[in-house]
Amino acid sequence: MFFIFLAFSAAVFINGATDAANALTGPVACGAIKLSRAALLAACMNLLGMLTFSALFPGVYDTVSGLTSFPAGSGTAAVTASLIAVVLWSGAAWIFGIPTSESHGLFAALAGASMALDVPMQAGEQWIKVGLGLLLSVAGGGLSGYLAARGLRSRRKKHSWRSASVFGCAATAFLHGAQDGQKFLGLMGAAGLLTRSRGAVFCCAGLMLCGTLLGGSRIVKKMGQEMADVDAFTAVCADLGSAVALLGMTIFGLPVSTTHVKMTAMACAAGGAGRKTDKGVILQVLFAWITTFPGCFLLAYFLTKLS
Description:
This protein is mostly helical and 307 residues long. The protein is built from 12 helices and no strands. The protein has one domain (2-306).
């Protein structure tokens, strides 16, 4: 049991560290707030988001915990392998400053571990929600970011958007906590190891908070400087688009990738605002996204076989 909770802690911690860039990129890239202060703000909002939505809208937890059901005695090894796979994949991407989706990796790892144990996947309805969420995370984030930029362009020069970008950071971090915290608890719930208890929620939220404090400076640079030329207006539009997409899908219990939502919202908001984007960097990120599923699937599969 020690090793599974160690793996759980590492996975939640690195999720906070890597996905911190989802919220920090805009205000840090445009100079509205220093990285250290933005990380502290995002960490606190991550904590608040998870605590709030775990109590009011637990649909994401219910979806993830219902994806599979491991037989007695095998769940611990399978979930440990799944968590280690996510840590290894996301940690490697983090070193190179490439934002990947822990959500995407988590579902892939769960499928790989289940196949290694010949455990049939559970209710098709839950997996449909996962597939729908992954598609909507890209389409919803991109469309919302673009529409926000086009809809607000007439006010672009009439206001200073720097302060608003800080509020956008807070909103994105709040909804990241609402989404990703429930997913990791849901994975543990699938193995019957943790319930959606108050203690478990506080533990998960605290680990995510600590990870977020690291800030993710390399990913902030990749998204806010290399992928897109982000100014304060673009940052606000990206965060507004992300918040709209994440809020709607979290309420309806669709587990989505906050990384996918924010990345596509940022790129499309930049395009809608007439800012430059680097197609080479975008393709690099897309390649990482595409390889996440087979990579985490295979890692979890072989780690489960070895356990």
